[in-house]
Write a structure and sequence with these properties.
The two termini are 29 Å apart. This protein folds into two domains: 170 residues, Rossmann fold, CATH 3.40.50; 90 residues, Rossmann fold. It contains eleven helices and eleven strands. Helix 5 links the parallel strand 3 and strand 4. A five-stranded parallel sheet has the order 2-1-3-4-5, with helices on both faces. The protein has a four-stranded parallel sheet with strand order 8-7-9-10. The protein has a two-stranded antiparallel sheet with strand order 6-11. By secondary structure, the protein is an alpha/beta fold. Helix 1 packs across helix 2, helix 2 crosses helix 6 and helix 3 packs parallel to helix 6.
């Protein structure tokens, strides 16, 4: 287990100075993102004029799109399915492409979508992205971000979600440092499996939490993410003695021998759930072997070959 480090209050400064040899854990990145976004004015976006927009994203961007447009009649797609959606769903009247970097699959998607002659917009955190070459300035909405390790994408997609929900990042930061840090957390390294139980109204954020477990732990740690109602459907037939059940926003009185309850504010929206969910996953990361830190440089080298683009382990 790696040595634990205490968090300081200059979170943003830490993110500006870290190197590949001292990559911060996800929990610190959450605090820095909330601190940085508290001082930022977020752009607004309004797509209510489109009755059936197609929302396209890859990985975390796809999950973010579902959060941003969960209350609309949107069609959702990723890099593998967007062409089929455009071909088969004639009612699609606009396209929103979400990509923090505006790179990797985004340029090909932006170029290909133009064949359908539908209004196209890019939501990104990179004003100089490759995808931007295929759009005019009025089709691009740029959101602020922090310097972060590759794949973390905390400040990037949190800025989009905050712009949608209008939550106050300073209040979220205060809630974490006051209400979450006061909890006596167990030794997460003593558990080999985690069952995360989220409130049903946050079902669409499941993909983002799932992605973080994959990115940080791969197959080293077993996990599942469910709502209380889904938990009732044979999710605990086979159990293991080293599994911790973490419930957000309420006590779990039904499942598992080892339980941890994490509070949420009464008025919690998606940015709160993302921030606190990521924060606890960061605490699990901090307590375990630094698999991500050991692997990210080699992963980025391989990804650079796969995408034919320069993928750096630190996103400036």
């Amino acid at each position: 287990m790696k040595q634990k480090t205490s968090l300081r209050t200059d979170y943003v400064q830490i993110m500006q100075k870290f190197t590949i040899t001292d990559i911060p854990d996800l929990d610190l990145c959450v605090l820095a993102s909330l601190e940085a976004l508290s001082a930022q004015k977020l752009p607004s976006f309004h797509f209510s004029s489109y009755k059936r927009p197609l929302v396209i994203g890859s990985g975390n961007a796809a999950a973010t799109g579902k959060i941003l447009f969960h209350d609309s009649d949107a069609v959702f797609a990723d890099e593998s399915s967007y062409v089929e959606k455009l071909e088969k769903i004639k009612a699609i009247d606009g396209v929103i492409l979400i990509s923090a970097s505006g790179g990797k699959h985004a340029p090909d998607i932006a170029k290909t979508v133009q064949k359908w002659d539908k209004p196209l917009f890019l939501l990104t955190n990179n004003p100089h992205s490759t995808a931007a070459r295929f759009l005019s300035p009025d089709q691009i909405i740029v959101f602020p971000k922090n310097r972060e390790p590759y794949t973390y994408n905390v400040s990037t997609y949190m800025s989009l979600i905050l712009a949608k929900t209008q939550e106050d990042p300073k209040k979220i930061l205060d809630f974490i440092t006051t209400n979450i840090d006061s909890i006596s957390l167990p030794d997460f390294s003593s558990y080999g499996a985690f069952c995360v139980i989220i409130p049903p109204q946050f079902l669409v954020i499941k993909e983002m939490l799932d992605k973080k477990f994959v990115e940080l732990f791969g197959r080293k740690i077993a996990y599942t993410i469910s709502t209380p109602e889904f938990m009732k459907h044979a999710t605990t037939v086979v159990s293991r003695p080293d599994e911790l059940f973490i419930s957000f926003g309420g006590d779990n009185t039904l499942w598992g021998k080892h339980r941890l309850a994490i509070p949420l504010p009464p008025t919690a929206d998606y940015a709160v759930m993302m921030a606190i969910g990521y924060y606890i996953i960061g605490k699990i990361q901090k307590a375990n072997h630094p698999w991500f830190q050991e692997s990210i440089v080699a992963y980025c080298k391989e990804s650079s070959k796969i995408f034919g683009q320069d993928v750096q382990p630190i996103v400036e």
